[in-house]
Amino acid sequence: MTTTVKDLTAKELTRKIMDGERMFILDVRPKEAFDDWKVEGKNVKILNKPFSELKDNLASVQSTLPNDEAIYVICAKGNSSAKTAEMLAEAGMENIYSVEGGMQAWSEYLEPVKIGELAGGEIYQFVRIGKGCLSYAIVSKGEVAFIDPSRLVEPYKTFMKDRNVQVKAVLDSHLHADHISGGRALSKEYDSPYYLPPKDAEEVQYTFNELTDDMEIEVGDTTIKAVYSPGHTIGSTSFIVDQHYLLTGDILFIDSIGRPDLAGKAEDWVGDLRDTLYSRYKHLGDDLIVLPAHFMTIDEMNEDGSISHRLGDLYQKNHGLNIENEEEFRHTVTENLPPQPNSYEKIRETNMGKINPEQDEKREMETGPNRCAVR
């Protein structure tokens, strides 16, 4: 009797990880791809065995696979995982799943998580778990503003339709270098203003609304206040929503701080980064809930799948906020940094409007983890 291979969607994989389910994953990509970027979860056990080795020697992995739980096979785009899963099933193994679309599909799935209430509405965080990217929807009185949206705009459109809201504004906290922004696409489709910090936009090839310090944007009964907070980029801007939430972009994360080198200006911007983190943010209020634009590891995720933390607590726990010596701080954020994001220069050019790659190329450009943090 042949065991049937089952498919697992990117949404189902995401929900299992966010719910903390126990999972055994067999990743059949080449070792270098696996070492660069892999599925992570608090209860995920993962084994890498390249398909190139398995196709001629399945026995090399069979003895290391569990017999008493499901096995989820993943590859880059879903082809090798399906073949591997079929081979395992034909060998008599049960409960075998192949992840549809592989790492590519997983990296493109966005899961909306409600963060809390606002005046006349709610705030949602879109968790792009496979990429570590976070974007936001500010909803109030039939209007919505999107902040730091992904190029994958369909989830936002579905979100709008489900809630019957109209786009009031689209905002990017800075010119992104690790992923392609969906800001302009949403703005154009819904004829709404697109806001971008002007200091990041000197080379952009399109029109935009300038996002300036202390600017306030009304969404229904909710207020979004812009706070100039340079350091990751020279134009980086944070947002305070209803005096309760602080959207930090790539300046401050839960377990790290933003890197200042993605535009080749680390030495120039390190002072701005320190001023923002050690002065500007210090005066904003400990009770603000920090909502960053990225997360680095699954350990930063709360039980409900959200990524958030109280600002005052981060000043106690985040190492990047507790480097008293300025020279040590400068050394930390300018040297021994992790590799820069894959294709980051082309991503910046795309976000400037200088190039317009085809969709398949955009997907390839975004392959891999975000690397916007100092580690």
Short descriptors:
375 residues; alpha/beta; seven-stranded mixed β-sheet; Oxidized Rhodanese, domain 1; Metallo-beta-lactamase, Chain A
Walk me through this protein's architecture:
The structure is a single chain. The chain has 13 helices and 20 strands. By secondary structure, it is α/β, with parallel strands linked by helices. A hairpin with a 2-residue loop joins β13 and β14 (222-228). The model has no long low-confidence stretch (mean pLDDT 93). Strands 6-7-8-9-10-11-12 form a seven-stranded mixed beta sheet. The chain has a six-stranded mixed beta sheet with strand order 13-14-15-16-18-19. The protein has helices at residues 10-18, 31-36, 51-54, 59-62, 79-90, 102-107, 154-163, 183-190, 266-280, 311-317, 326-334, 344-352, 359-365, and strands at 6-8, 23-27, 44-48, 71-74, 96-99, 111-118, 121-128, 133-140, 143-147, 166-171, 194-196, 209-210, 216-219, 222-228, 237-241, 245-249, 257-258, 289-292, 309-310, 373-374. 28% of the residues lie in helices and 25% in strands. It has two domains: 6-105, 3-Layer(aba) Sandwich (Oxidized Rhodanese, domain 1); 110-374, Metallo-beta-lactamase, Chain A (4-Layer Sandwich), CATH 3.60.15.10.
Unreliable runs: none
- Averaged pLDDT: 93
The class by helix and strand makeup works out as alpha/beta
| Annotated CATH architecture of the largest domain | 4-Layer Sandwich
Distance between the termini: 51 Å
**CATH topology name of the largest domain:** Metallo-beta-lactamase, Chain A
Give the overall shape.
globular
Helix content: 25-40%
Enumerate the strands of the largest sheet in spatial order, edge to edge or round the barrel.
6-7-8-9-10-11-12
How many beta-strand segments? Answer: 20
CATH class membership of the largest domain:
Alpha Beta
Query: Superfamily at the CATH H level of the largest domain?
Result: Ribonuclease Z/Hydroxyacylglutathione hydrolase-like
Quaternary structure type: single chain
Main sheet specs: 7 strands, mixed
* SS strand fraction: 15-25%
Count of domains: 2
What is the number of helices? 13
Computed CA radius of gyration, to the nearest angstrom:
21 Å
